[in-house]
What does this fold into?
Amino acid sequence: MAGTQGQQTWPTPFLPGVWKVSSRCNGGNCVAVATEHNGRIAVRDTKTGAGPILSFSAAEWDAFITSIKDM
It folds into this structure.
């Protein structure tokens, strides 16, 4: 299955259109987040749609978000 965003196409286990781009996107330095079918959270660089995807468990993602909110 492949997803698309703009003109980019990338292999993905996600439904098309589920990638959410960060509200803090600045000059093309952006990340996108999606929820995988198995409940894990995926993160990717929007400039490299076909590039690597980091995958986190819900607990790992919650810990990450909690830690950066305290910065």
